[in-house]
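Bug #77: duplicate submission created two jobs. Keeping one. Sequence:
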Amino acid sequence: MSKHSVDRILFGAAYYDEYMPAGEDRIETDMKMMDAAGINVIRIAESTWSTCEPQPGVFDFSHVDRALDAAQRHNINVIVGTPTYAVPAWLVRMHPDVLAVTPNGPGKYGPRQIMDIVNPAYRYYGERVIRELIKHVANHPAVIGYQVDNETKYYDSVSPDMQALFVKYLRGKFNDDLDQLNAHFGLDYWSNRVDAWEDFPDVTNTINQSLRGEFDRFRRAQVAEFLAWQADIVREYARDDQFVTQNFDFEWRGYSYGVQPAVDHFKASAAVDITGVDIYHPTEDELTGTEIAFGGDMTRSTKNGANYLVLETEAQGQHGWVPFPGQLRLQAYSHLASGADMVEYWHWHSIHNSFETYWKGLLSHDMESNPTYEEAGVFGREVADPAVGERLIHLKKSNKVAIMVSNEALSALEWFRVETGFPDGTGVNYNDIVRRVYDALFRLNVECDFLPVDAPTERLAQYAMIVTPALYCTPEETIARLRGFVAGGGHLVSTMRSFVTDDEVTVWHDRAPHGLTDVFGLTYNQFTRPKGRVPVVFADDAALAGTPEASAEALIELLKTDAEAGTEVLARYGHYAWESYAAVTRHGFGKGSAEWIGTLLDADIMKAVMREAVAHAGIEPAGLALAGKLVVRQGVNQSGETVTYLLNYSADAVSFASPVAGSVVVAPQVVGADGLIDEAASASLAVRPGMPVAVGDELTIPRWNLAVIAG
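Kept job's structure:
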């Protein structure tokens, strides 16, 4: 192991000796079962502060020691988590202000993630338990790395501490000049002006999104600082061969969905050596692989393509997620297909009391073997084979499409909702638009990366096509870089609600889109909300001729094109009041081109528009011809071979012509209802391990199955 990479594919589960039923000593049994399943890593301790420190300054690491020693006996690696994301009762009793004050009022003890991460008492006692734990475990041979905190966010804190630090930050940013601050944020509106620092109001209920957005940005920065603070403490004790990671998560809609509102993953990941993540997704009939890919692509992009760790994903998970036979194996390989070097389940055994008894781990509440555990072993033993694992680890991507995302735009469009302009929760939000674009590309087998809004010019230059879904807030520097990207030969695709304000949510007061009217060959100064059906009609003589008529699903921008500039109108609005306006356009600029989508298209039409845009950009993905049949994911392994994952997320077998040549590294396997390989059924499959494959060879992948070809 090293600080920045792992030396084999890690496969494991979170393990909590502390949570076992009273009087139950299963640690040897559990480790033997893990070993049998090919599990080679566990994560411990990240939520056990009250067990590690039952009273102030009294430390008890006996459960940690039991797990470490048992893991070592079975050659299982351990990632130790700092236990700071769930505070002990004694700390709250001594210092009630460690609980975050939110817009809903003062916090109350009970749940996890209820603390104010900038509170001095929380930091003092947090540092003490981190130091005691890490110096206790750092020299244990089983420990390969550390996870700082868990799913860290600012927990919507509007505490006095958080707001005092925010005012201090503003005084530095504006050089103590309140006139400058008032002018910059437009605080004269509705008498929000502040003329003395001691009068600075509580920002909880401000109606000024520039100030709200700045507060959100500040709180996200506190998350990054908090993680860096923890990582620095850990590194004082860590060995040179131990890494530091963090378990980031996403906007939650019952599963991992979109850009995380409370953390800037790009900035916060700078604190860690390897970015870690949890990715949860629908399964059974709703398994599509989309969330696995989205989460992986976002996490890989935080360090510009570096491999990452999946620190949590589901085994059985919540109700309705018990995987069909074959799905658990398919899901695990899907993480590797995005560039993960580790797949770890939350968690090993199902909890017997308290809150998360509904969430089932690899083992159910009886802690006996079950089909999910057995199928995990199928994957674990496969990747433990060097002929498989060594050809799949450290997959590197070289994608030609990137999606630019912005926490500032996300925050702004929660206040100025796309359809109403009010903070009323109505209609689609920022992540809906991001996912509409991403999902279309995923369905086309067009792999993509993500870019932060402040990505430098040289990073933009890695791509042939960049998409900016609803990039509402855009710094002037980014607009200049995107302009240069197009002038240099790139294809820029932007959707409605892009380039509306600067990065501090002040609306530009020149022609829209700001600074880019000549790049897109259009402008607009009116938009409306479609009431009833507003068709989007594609031109018969344009590049998207033959695309079925669509309906505008959200806001429609009334685009006025520059005929003299040669702007191509790909679609117009099919409504008598708006038929003179364009809905989708494209324009050549410099050596490149820029495309504008003025409304939210439905999923199928967005897919068609993205397909044509990719072709226009000169991108020819290997799996494009298989779009709609199989998901194709590619990369290059450490030996320089192109590795192609062919993933069948459906209940039917799929036959197809191979898009690539090479040899089969991972073949389809038929997993029975017991979670074990059905040897007879698997032997009847035509695709076998080691089999050579040529381009065009007819292959068949059974339902919920996969093949991996390297060559």
